[in-house]
Design brief:
alpha/beta, 45% helix, 6 helices, 6 strands, two-stranded parallel sheet
Length: 149
């Protein structure tokens, strides 16, 4: 009986210590928003000071789009489609039976309804060759809309 109480006590103390360690670690690194605003002073930066973005700079939201977006929540398929477009892929709308077929270089296939919905809301625009590219409004949606999984 005493052993069980001692074991539970050690586990509780371990979890408490781990929680304090995580809180101190989080406080040391600061919030992500604070890291983006302040430029580091030294020329030799460690890995934790870099802001990582896998999208090319031309696919970052310009910040100039104004007005409310027509949707506040993106479905996971819409989010996935916009992310592909953000990374420079040309989006084509295909039925399910053709979606798994190989696509030309820098092209991704997504569902007909998904692409039609994103186009209707102004998040995708025709590229003139049967595909779609992301608009600034679509980049804004990636920044501010939540995703329903």
């Amino acid at each position: 009986m005493e052993f069980v109480v001692l074991l539970v006590g050690v586990i509780v103390l371990g979890l408490l210590g781990w929680g304090i360690y995580r809180a101190m670690k989080r406080r040391e690194t600061g919030s992500p928003a604070a890291g983006r605003q302040a430029e580091p002073q030294s020329s030799t930066l460690d890995d934790s000071t870099y802001r990582v973005s896998y999208a090319p700079p031309e696919f970052e939201w310009s910040g100039t789009t104004t007005g409310a977006l027509p949707v506040k929540i993106l479905t996971y398929k819409q989010y996935e489609c916009l992310e592909d477009a953000r990374y420079g892929f040309r989006i084509v709308a295909l039925p399910p039976s053709e979606r798994k077929q190989p696509q030309p270089h820098k092209t991704r296939a997504h569902g007909l309804k998904t692409v039609a919905s994103l186009k209707k809301h102004g998040f995708l625009a025709d590229d003139g060759e049967g595909g779609h590219l992301i608009t600034d409004r679509g980049l804004n949606a990636l920044e501010v809309c939540s995703v329903r999984y």
